[in-house]
Amino acid sequence: MSKKDKKDKKLKLQDELTELQNKYLLTLAELENTRKRMQKEKTEALSFAIENTISEFLPLIDNFENALNFATDSSEEVKNWALGFQMILSQIKDILHNHGIVAYHSVGNNFDPHYHDAVEIVESNDHEPGSIIEELAKGYKSATRVIRPARVKVTKKTLEKIQDIDAAKNDDEPQIDENENINECIEEENCCNNTEAENSCGSENDQDKDPMDQDQKNLRDENIKINK
To answer: Is beta strand 116-123 parallel, antiparallel or unpaired with respect to 102-104?
Structure first.
C-alpha cells in the first residue's frame, strides 16, 4: 500500500471518527433534554395535583375565617376556643404558603375575569363601573395559575346616571330650530304670493284699458298711412 493510500485511509477514518463523535454528542444532548423535560413535566404534574388537592380545602378555610369573625363578639370561653382554631388556621395557611399558594386582595380593584367571579352586580354612583366593592370569598393563586377566583360584588352605573349621560350627549348635538324653519317657509310662501299678485295685477291692468283709446290709436295709424 502506497503512502498516498495510507494517507487517504487515515483521513477517511478521521472523518468517520469525527462523525461518530458528533452523533454521540447529539444523542447525549437529546437524552439530557429528554431527562429535563420529563423532570419538568413530573414537577408540574405533582404541583398540579397538590394545587387541586389544596383547592378542596379552601372552603374549609373560609368556614374557619367566618367562624372566627363571629367569635370576636362572643363570650370569653368562646374566644379561648377561637384562639385554638386560629392557631390551626395559621398552620393550614403556612402549608399553603410552603406550596406557593397565597390569597390575593380584590376589594377596590377593577373586575378581572381571570381573577374574579362576579356573583352579584349592584348599581352605584359612588364607584366607577366594574369596581369591586365586596369580597364574598377570597381568591387564591400559585406562581403559575389561579387556584380559585375570588367571588365578588361588582358595581355598574345606575339607570338615572345612564339617562343623564344620554341627555348630555343629546345636548351636545346641534339642535334644529323648528320655529325658524316655519318662519322661513312662511316668508317664501308670502314672496311667491306677492309675485303672483303682481303678475295678476299687470294682466288685469291690460284688460282694464279703455277700448276707445285703442280705436283712436288705430285711427291715427291709418291717417299716417294715408298721408304717406
So the answer is: unpaired
Q: Give the integer Cα–Cα distance in Å for 148 and 152.
A: 12
Cα distance between residue 9 and residue 138, in whole Å: 76
pLDDT at residue 66, rounded to an integer: 87
- For residues 112 and 118, give the distance between their C-alpha atoms in angstroms, rounded to a whole number: 9
Contact 147, 58 (CB under 8 A): yes
How long is the chain? Answer: 228
- 185 lies in a domain? no
- Sign of the C-alpha dihedral computed for residues 188, 192, 197 and 202 taken in this order: positive
- Give the confidence band of 39 by pLDDT, cuts at 50, 70, 90: very high
- Give the chain's domain count: 1
Distances (CA, A) of 209 to 1, 200, 216: 148, 15, 13
Say if 120 falls within a structural domain. yes
Query: What tens digit of pLDDT does each residue of 158-199 get?
Result: 765 555 555 556 555 555 444 555 455 556 655 555 555 455
